[in-house]
Amino acid sequence: MTQKEQSPITRAMFDQLILPVYAPAQFIPVKGQGSRVWDQNGDEYIDFAGGIAVNALGHCHPNLVKALHEQSEKLWHVSNVFTNEPALQLAQRLIDSTFADRVFFANSGAEANEAALKLARHYAIEKFSPYKTKLISFYHSFHGRTFFTVSVGGQAKYSDGFGPKPADIIHIPFNDLDAVKAVIDDQTCAVILEPVQGEGGLTSATPEFLNGVRELCDQFHALLIFDEVQSGMGRTGTLFTYQQYGVTPDILTSAKALGGGFPISAMLTTEAISSVMHPGVHGTTYGGNPLACAVGIAAFDTINSPQVLASINAKRELFIRELEQINQQFNVFTQYKGKGLLLGAELAPQYHGKARDFLNVATSFKVMILNAGASVLRFTPSLVITDEEIKEGMQRFAKAVAQISAS
Q1: Does the annotation place 228 within a ligand binding site?
Q2: How many angstroms separate the CA atoms of 65 and 53, rounded?
Q3: Which CATH number covers residue 293?
Q4: Do 230 and 351 belong to one domain?
Q5: Residue 229 annotated as lining a ligand binding site
């Protein structure tokens, strides 16, 4: 090997080699087990970030490792020129457990949402009118980073600066039914929303809002799309969050925890809506490949079990009790947001805009957390994290809060 090939891997290499669209922490994780991660120096961290709600079963869960190993010795990829057994098995599980009749597999949440939005417009054009193309979305929403999905998302900071955006997209306030009534009409093809806004501060939809939007969509023959990329797969205490509201979407997207760390996503819909599609209208090279779907089956079967789903809200309450102990001492939080283990802690006014500071200081005390916007701390740990790990991680986090409070 050359001297260059033998050079040690350092964090400084990131700044030299990777497109500068991220600002990662200064340590490099090299190993994970359950809810613990170790860096290059052997230092151990408690993981409350979960890969941004991806590692729903922690790191290297034995069920997922077994599925990956077994499938890796059988079949990795054949493209969608051919089908494969794991894809059909995972599709059947999703259909059996939801409202859906049809599934489309892709690789990321953005791709699932791209497929959902294209389907919604195509359905409206084919069934009603070529002018029925309006998409209604909400401020502070996030639906991905493709140009279409980032334009539909309600955060201009992510979509500005790339030239003309896709047309016929309207953004209105979340949880404001009157705002929906003011803009929905016969030219609306779909309303897209997150039952819990993940990147937008962990605001949960109210039951009245979701029921009202459903009724308006029915009235104007518009499709209702639920983006459950972050809120789905057990994250909020049920397999999908819509099941807590009794409001059924026409299209649902899933990703992140669907593969437990392996890239996979899915768009779910009904037979009636999917009937407008035919070969060649949409597609993907890697979507539904057997390796991803085999891991997805293992993740699905493990998460969609009474012992996992039934424990999530109890773990949430433990997190909040621990956060409240910190809050009683340092007065840093005003409220707790989200559902289940999609948990947000909104910072007090004196700390507004400083969520990223909490994240950075927390890593120095060997605990990994997230932010959701500039003023909300986000906790999306493994759904099977132990009570002991929650308490230990919170002890470390308390030290970080103490340091920030003293500065």
Answers
A1: yes
A2: 19
A3: 3.40.640.10
A4: no
A5: yes
